[in-house]
Structure formats: C-alpha cells, structure tokens
Amino acid sequence: MICGVDEAGRGPLAGPVSAAAVILDDAYPIPGLADSKKLSERQRDLLAPVIRERALAWAVAYAEVGEIDRLNILQATLLAMRRAVLALPVQPQQVLVDGLYCPQTGIPSQAIVKGDSKVAAISAASILAKTARDALMLQLHEQYPLYGFAVHKGYPTAAHLAALREHGVSAVHRRSFRPVRELLAVIP
C-alpha cells in the first residue's frame, strides 16, 4: 500500500500548515485528481468528499502557529506530514511525498518533486490538505473578521497586509514570518 502526502499553507502569514496522507484504492480510481493548485475551489470541494469516501485510508493533520514560529515552516510542515501519516488507520508500506523532503515516519519514503501532478495519491492528499485548511481559515475568519481570512486564507495579499497594519497582529498570525515580524518591530 502506497500513501501519498502533501501539504497546504506554507506561505500564508496566518493559520496552521496542514498536511494530508491518502491511500487510494486502485480498484476505484477517482477521475479529475490533479495538483490542488491547478483545480478551482469548486473542483476541490467536489473532489474532497469523493476522496474521503473512496480512499482506503486518509488523515489530515496540522502544525499550529506556535509550532511554525518555534520550529520554522519546513520543520513544522514535516511535523504535520508525520502526524498525518501516523494518524492513518492502516500503515502504508511506502510513503510518497510531494516536494524535496520526507517526514520521519519509520516507513520507507520517497520525495517526488511535482509529485502532486505525477502521483494520484499525492494529488488526493493535496486536495484534502487544501480543502481542510481553507475550511479552518473560514472558521478563523469568524473569530477574526477584520483580517479577511475568508477571502485570502492568510496569504500575504495587499488587503491582508493593510489589515495587519490597521488592526495589528492577531493570535493566529505567524510572528516569525517577515511581514508580521517587521510589523511587530515597529510597534512601540
């Protein structure tokens, strides 16, 4: 059994980084799987429940803002990936990870550059990680409506940077990321 792993949310200034691990059932292929960045939000939202229903196993996990600030974004991403793989109800025989690095899971692993467009299980993981994080950012928007998380999902858009300057840094902002760190440095 092969498990695909991918993350979402490395670049945003706010919120956790998410990771998903998916073991697909080869007997029930899922048409339309692709890198989540190449799909529309609507396509991702339609595929996510199909993936959850048809996969042999799947899990989503996070590394929180405090962990990102303490560890750095790469190590926090690997931590979220490790958590996702270890949360699977069955242990895969091999872990295929999108990107350059593999989390330490004790399971044979291989990093595949652009794996989310080459391996169906990684594509599925990419979609689950992205849709789960987007849903979480909508919840954070309810708690922190001044920042516009529902629109930009925490990414450093002009509107988000303007909201940060106007309203200051919230509890869910990544203090180690340069725009947030620089803003904190100028606050008396």
| Biggest sheet architecture | 5 strands, mixed
Return the CATH class: Alpha Beta
**Rg of Cα set:** 17 Å
Instruction: Name the CATH architecture.
Output: 2-Layer Sandwich
Strand line-up across the major sheet = 3-2-1-4-5
Count helical runs: 7
SSE order, as H and E? Answer: EEHEHHEEHHHH
Alpha-beta content class: alpha/beta
Number of domains: 1
Q: Any low-confidence stretches, pLDDT <50, length ≥5?
A: none
Query: Percent of residues in beta strands?
Result: 15-25%
What would you call the shape?
A: globular
Q: What descriptive keywords fit this protein?
A:
188 residues, Nucleotidyltransferase, domain 5, 5-stranded mixed β-sheet, globular
Helix and strand arrangement:
Layout: E1 2-8, E2 17-23, H1 41-54, E3 57-63, H2 65-71, H3 73-87, E4 94-98, E5 109-112, H4 120-143, H5 149-152, H6 158-167, H7 178-186
Parallel strand pairs: 1-4, 4-5
Antiparallel strand pairs: 1-2, 2-3
Helix pairs in contact: 1-4, 2-3
Summarize the structure.
Helices cover 44% and strands 16% of the residues. It has helices at 41-54, 65-71, 73-87, 120-143, 149-152, 158-167, 178-186, and strands at residues 2-8, 17-23, 57-63, 94-98, 109-112.
